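I'd like us to work through together how a protein chain folds, taking it slowly. To get us started, please write out a protein record for me. Go ahead whenever you are ready, and we will take it from there:
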Amino acid sequence: MRRPGLAVAALLLAGAWRPAVAGPNDLNLLHLCDPKTPAPGVLNGMVSECGWVRRATGTGLIESITPDAEAESRFRSLMSELGVLMAPRLSVPAETLGLAGFQISGEAGTTSISRGEPFWNGVEAVSPDNRLRRPDGWLTTVGLTLRKGLWLPLPALEVGGGFMHLVDSKMVSWQGYAKLALHEGFHDWPLPSFAVRGSAAILTGTDQVRMSIAGLDLLMSKGFGILKTARLEPFGGWSFLFVRARANPVDATPSCDAYFARTATAGQPLGDNCAEAQRGTDNDFAANFAFSPQDVITRHRFFGGAKLKFATVFMVAQYAIAPAGRSRDESKSNGARDGSGKQESLSLSAGFDF
């Protein structure tokens, strides 16, 4: 039974590591800024809107750029929904695999986002007429997970790890978890199994943010035999997610090459968003800014599903719902607010239990 498992892994890995070309779901935090008409007397930008550079009247040199409170809230909301999207789903019942158990599975899932909200301007997809398009309302992920049952250092322990890739992007969530069954194995009694699980994930594949996600889950399940040939195991539970996001520096004048502006010879055009006064200087670097580090974003998630197993082959279907986020950043005076909406997820995984 090794060849089918290796085939599933090869297909998922091939889908995840395509050529490194920015996709329509890759992040561009500059689009979180609200483009408005420049104020009179201010060259190329608003005084207070992030992404719009304040230049000194008369010289055209960049003075400053600072994200406002609304932009900070859009960043927090985007990170909240992205965190739920890339958090470990871990579609497994409460019972562990047992001391000798080993499992390999592939998963495909889709998760809703608040496509109509302004903060999803932070996802870049430029159409032929150079206008910004929003992403789809449901984003697809594919992944691969390996799980192993253990007896030490604690009985009824299970660990696992794998990855989840956001389709049409370069982003990959590398995930790991540990599950401890508090009650399991009483198959002939009308008692469900209970387990507690901890998980963690790190997001890679983007130069816009650094994100880590942690989760604490409580779950229960109960298995039933079907005609003595298959086993059906419904399960359900609750997750408490912790999303930590840090923005990398953003260039508010991407069409102005700071190095070229400093080294260009007389007569060479500097390009868009470059003022003549910047020629021979590093002034364009003053247009780099970053969104403030946020307090940890918290989200709740409720999930339910069922595992159907026949011999060593299994399939799992799961539905999850995360209510709208309402956390606020208390460490900054601007008090960025999480305006994320309700998110739903549907996932299907299949693989082999050995």
